[in-house]
């Protein structure tokens, strides 16, 4: 028989649990309500299927899933109460998680971040895919349809997909051993497979260049929605779900995650997604993940390298951060990462006859293309109206402010301490990444919008800004400042979506230092 002390402790723990979590006990739903719930799910699935079939107006397909819930919200008071209770409970779970009192609230991230962003991103017509991203979806199509990576099946498309007007290959394609393949890493292909495979099963026309571009847009929206959800869950672990939500709004409306990641399958999307996956494991466990978490981190770091070789800097810094705190865990992460890289090395050897992969990797390591510690490119990366981090992410000033007053800010009552050394990791990673990309001969990043090459570290800036956001949310003037930063960031990126301002890159020569002719002031010729 258990002692009275044991029973009393059990009762006390149950009381404490009931204070932390207030479960929502729903009354038994009527058959009609249950039928409408299931019908909503079916209609949403049909809408997603219409989206993936790539027919006319397919981009509005996902919005079809909102039709029945919207009608019920307008007409049914009981349904409004039920939805309100569900939203309140989901937010309570997010707040409890932020205080370190519950499991990862995946449902909250899905409801408040992933679904809204995906629906809005797919519905508009903006795209930002270029030659860098062009091979990704065709490679996924070839893999699903024919079981190989040879893109020769797309030779006959009109307009041409693989070649320029003079008949030579576009720089994003090359021929190796009789196969036409991409000149870029294949790390983004798994993301494209998530949309290409069901689209093929649903009978989409995958021999249409327009449809291939559309599927790239849908895939990019999915990647951005996933990355933003991971960011929200990571930032929330610093003690404030509200601050994490505002920081996520910064990224979703006023950063490279809105344009570069959300409008095309750039390599940066994979880098930030896998980096945030590794960071979430670290933050959710307070810097002490078990061996399963360490294996997941190693796998995520390996996928970062598969997406973009320059991500090796972030991978190395993350590994060093882990090793300094726990050599044993660092060994597990390293072994897992090396094992996860083996399939990519084998793939590169089979396709390119080189363990480094495509031709661009072999040529871009040339010392002639790199010049470190140049002042003017560094200033351009930070402040130029064409590519500046602080121009296209105006809220990043909060990250700088937080770093400057970090010894004092870290003791703010609004915050909960994250993993040991997280702020130093973010600050060092951002600094060294800026040094790296400013050393590249084409520091503006070619045909792009905003600070594309800096996109890899934008989530780290968001994490650094989150403590400052938590403090500002407690003050009326601070709320006004945050609203202003959200508005400015959105207005800077909106022209890329609504007005195809990325076509500014066609102007020759590109003047990255002209405020009067900045990309966000671009107007297409009438």
UniProtKB/TrEMBL annotation:
Superkingdom of the organism of origin: Bacteria
Keyword annotations: Membrane, Transmembrane, Transmembrane helix
Transmembrane intervals: 183-202, 214-233, 240-259, 305-324, 330-348, 389-409, 421-441, 453-473, 479-498
The keyword Transmembrane appears for this protein: yes
Identification of the protein by name: Glycosyltransferase RgtA/B/C/D-like domain-containing protein
Organism, scientific name: Paludisphaera borealis
